UniProtKB/TrEMBL annotation:
SUPFAM superfamilies: alpha-helical ferredoxin. It holds the Pfam family Fer4_8. Keywords: 4Fe-4S, Electron transport, Iron, Iron-sulfur, Metal-binding, Transport. One of its GO terms (molecular function) is oxidoreductase activity. The keyword Transcription regulation does not apply. It comes from the Bacteria. Residues 60-135 form the 4Fe-4S ferredoxin-type domain. InterPro entries: 4Fe4S_Fe-S-bd, 4Fe4S_Fe_S_CS, Cys_rich_dom, Helical_ferredxn, HmcF. The keyword Iron applies. Residues 338-424 form the Cysteine-rich domain. Gene3D superfamilies: Alpha-helical ferredoxin. This is HmcF: HMC redox complex, cytoplasmic iron-sulfur protein.
Length: 462
């Protein structure tokens, strides 16, 4: 069967198409159709010839099979050190095999490869840190996902997610009107406590253009208001765009590179339209990677940079605390053991370890912060990155993957985990639900707000 009704090689382009795919509960029909999906070997090999560049070819050829990458991979560790979980084996037996066979692979092979690509690698890029040859298997898995997506072998949830970006320029069915209305409504809820609080929309030449994760609009609208409060308390000249407000990219997880380009260009269009001095993105790791690190290349920007200087929320928050724009009441600092989850996508990929620890130094009483071991750029993935959190088909594998972070947290003795990243936040929430180790977890915004030293002129009248 060349194409199924739900499982096929065609991207989902419209809201109607998204809803139709959503109607297939848990992807039951989708995965049945996948078993009959034809592999277009000619297209697969042509795509490889056109896109597999010298770096990837060299990496596949120079791998010494030394096994140094094995212990770097948390999935290898939590799965009984199965040799098939060694990063080098995983990529050589999938992408390497497709190239060796010039695309002439079977349906069963592609389905097995789909499981390896999404359930045996989170693209955390930790293996590349330890490879003596600098081979980054995570980068190659991102490329492999693109080949699989083109052929229709992609998890149901991520086919939907990529479709959302094509249809809404957001990872969920949140329209531009929904975003603005929700932000304004939530700010109104906080106005009595913070006089003068507003959300400036489409303000040109602001110092900050703020972008968010659509999940905040849909499921955590208080996060929008908290961001507004902190910008207000810091006296920032800021705005949000009415279009191009969504910073995340499930299309990146899915390997839908065309949708990645569409999504990031919507944010860049907002930057060029409003001309802010800086863009500040919310507490989300993959959103920062998609918009600031990978995005310029998807958009074909020759300088490798977004149209405006773009920073992660932890950078802005550290700056605001370090310069005194935001002041903490010392009596309200955290006085219990607390640890910090380092997000792969902005710690390992952009080195923001100092910013997060600057924040900790302001909000945690000395002696109460406990580092995970290992930490910073050596920290392990939360267990749910790269789309792993949201794929029902691989939930059992994901729950096993959470054990590494569980053990890291338990070793600290902390009951509170700071998690300034949506994927990490979700994974740690699920970790607690699955293993019940008695922890709490939080973004930075709500914690900071509770301990602010608010100037008299910004306090509400009695």
């Amino acid at each position: 069967m060349p194409e199924g009704k739900f499982c096929n090689k065609k991207p989902v382009e419209t809201p109607e198409g998204v809803n139709e795919l959503l109607s297939d509960t848990s992807g039951n029909i989708y995965y049945k159709e996948m078993k009959e999906l034809d592999v277009d070997s000619d297209l697969l090999w042509k795509t490889i010839q056109n896109t597999c560049k010298s770096r990837t070819k060299t990496w596949l050829e120079i791998c010494a099979h030394c096994g140094m990458c094995a212990e770097s991979c948390f999935l290898y560790q939590v799965n009984g050190r199965d040799p098939k979980q060694v990063p080098a084996y995983k990529i050589q037996s999938t992408l390497g095999e497709i190239i060796r066979k010039k695309g002439k692979v079977s349906n069963q092979f592609m389905r097995d490869t789909m499981e390896v690509a999404w359930a045996k690698c989170t693209c955390c890029n930790r293996c590349g840190t330890y490879c003596p040859h600098g081979i980054d298997t995570g980068i190659m898995f991102g490329y492999l996902r693109g080949l699989l997506y083109q052929q229709g072998f992609v998890p149901w949830e991520l086919k939907i997610g990529a479709g959302m970006h094509r249809a809404y320029r957001a990872q969920m069915d949140v329209t531009d009107e929904d975003f603005v209305d929700t932000f304004e409504w939530m700010v109104e809820e906080y106005e009595d406590d913070y006089p003068g609080l507003t959300v400036p929309v489409d303000k040109e030449n602001a110092d900050i253009m703020y972008t968010v994760n659509a999940r905040e609009v849909k499921h955590y609208p208080e996060d929008l208001a908290e961001a507004a409060v902190l910008f207000h308390m810091a006296g920032e000249n800021w705005t949000v765009p009415s279009k191009g407000w969504e910073e995340t990219s499930l299309a990146m997880f899915a390997g839908d590179w065309a949708a990645c380009k569409m999504q990031v260009e919507s944010v860049y269009d907002a930057m060029e339209r409003l001309k802010p001095k800086r863009m500040v993105g919310t507490e989300c790791g993959h959103a920062h990677r998609a918009t600031v690190i990978e995005g310029p290349y998807w958009a074909g920007r020759e300088n490798g940079l977004p149209p405006a200087e773009s920073i992660h929320y932890v950078e802005w928050l550290a700056e605001a605390l370090n310069t005194g724009k935001l002041k903490i009441d010392p009596s309200k600092r955290i006085k219990e053991l607390v640890t910090l989850q380092d997000s792969c996508n902005y710690i390992r990929n952009q080195g923001l370890k100092k910013a997060t620890r600057d924040i900790v130094s302001h909000i945690v009483e000395p002696g109460y912060f406990v580092e995970m071991s290992p930490n910073k750029e050596h920290n392990y993935c939360c267990g749910g990155g790269g789309g792993f959190n949201g794929i029902g088909l691989f939930r059992k594998q994901r729950n096993v993957a959470l054990r590494k972070k569980r053990d890291q947290i338990l070793a600290t003795g902390a009951k509170l985990v700071l998690a300034p990243c949506h994927n990490c936040w979700d994974a740690i929430r699920d970790l607690e639900e699955e293993y019940e180790i008695g922890i709490r977890w939080s973004f930075l915004k709500p914690i900071i707000i509770k301990m602010l030293d608010i100037p008299d002129h910004l306090k509400p009248e009695e």
